[in-house]
Amino acid sequence: MSKISIKILVTICFSIIITLSVLPPSSAAAGETKTTGPPPPQCSSGTTGECRDKTAALKLKIVAIASILVTSMIGVCLPIFSKAVPALQPDKDLFVLVKAFASGVILATGYMHVMPDSFDCLRSECLPEDPWHKFPFTTFVAMLSAILTLMVDSYAMSYYRKHNLGRGIKKCCSNVENEIKLESQPQPQTQTQTQTEGNIIINSDDYKDSAASQLLRYRVVAQVLELGIVVHSVVIGLSMGASDNPCTIRPLVAALCFHQLFEGMGLGGCILQAEYGSKVKAIMVFFFSATTPFGIALGIGLSNVYSDNSPTALIVVGLLNACSAGLLNYMALVDLLASDFMGTKLQNNIKLQTWAYVAVLLGAGGMSLMAKWA
């Protein structure tokens, strides 16, 4: 029940974010301007420019909802159902390379997409000079978000280790303990001693605690990572849904499909390693797959009252993007890349480690190239 309650809390946070990012701009769009002095001409309306066709934009947005939903589900479900393919199981080299590629995509998403969008919003000419142009709010909020993510990471580990480590999570590791005992049947007089290599003695209880702690770590990482993805996915979807510019939407659809596919693979790998039950897996897959299409649908419904150039909308979206950027950058560097590259599997295999770095660069490079169109 604790996992389900966490998902309910995520839903509540999701609803609060939507409310904060949608309701205030509607009043600004209606003409209730609270800033002193006349705003610049480009701030008076949401979508400007020669390429503006509401009918064509609506068709593209409907295509975007369907295509992004399908690619999101494919991306997040591929690692989860990879148990049927021996080469894609978590202990295989190919899984490590695919996860490294997806981690590079997530890292580039934070640095090359979400953070620049936050800069654009909080440095906009539609905002007053003081304080938005005199202080780097984007990097400040991203820094605080990374620290807050570390706190959530740390406190969640402490809480679950205290309440769950001795109960449910250890059960997942009992089969590992049994395998170790079967492989080391000699020396029946010392039941806790399972394997001896030189002067190193591996204790089955210690190994069980270590495996349970690692499993707990995977679960916390999967939940925190999905929370960050949900936040920026809603913002992206809302912006696309409110736009009436086909020239902007058309390349954005392809870029978001690429983004959702490989970002989903990274999240799906974390969900697979967390060894959740089928019910929790289904909830996490649903949240990841539905957030961007839901944001687009919400933007379509609010396109007549939502002004993406209003001061309130710029501030809210800019701060949310900065929070999401800090969270994604922390998760990609600390919980995904550093955890894998400093682990025993890659540390003991220089060739695999080199190929993993190549995969990270390819993922980050491909996602960075998408910044040219989105």
TrEMBL record:
Signal peptide span: 1-28
Localization per record: Membrane
Keyword field: Ion transport, Membrane, Signal, Transmembrane, Transmembrane helix, Transport
Sequence intervals crossing the membrane: 62-82, 94-115, 135-157, 220-240, 284-306, 312-333, 354-373
Coiled coil: none
Pfam families with a match to the protein in the record: Zip
Database matches in InterPro entries: ZIP, Zn/Fe_permease_fun/pln
Location of the region described as Disordered in the Swiss-Prot/TrEMBL record: 29-48
Topological type in the membrane: Multi-pass membrane protein
Family the UniProt entry places it in: Belongs to the ZIP transporter (TC 2.A.5) family.
Protein name: Fe(2+) transport protein 1-like
Protein's organism: Penstemon davidsonii
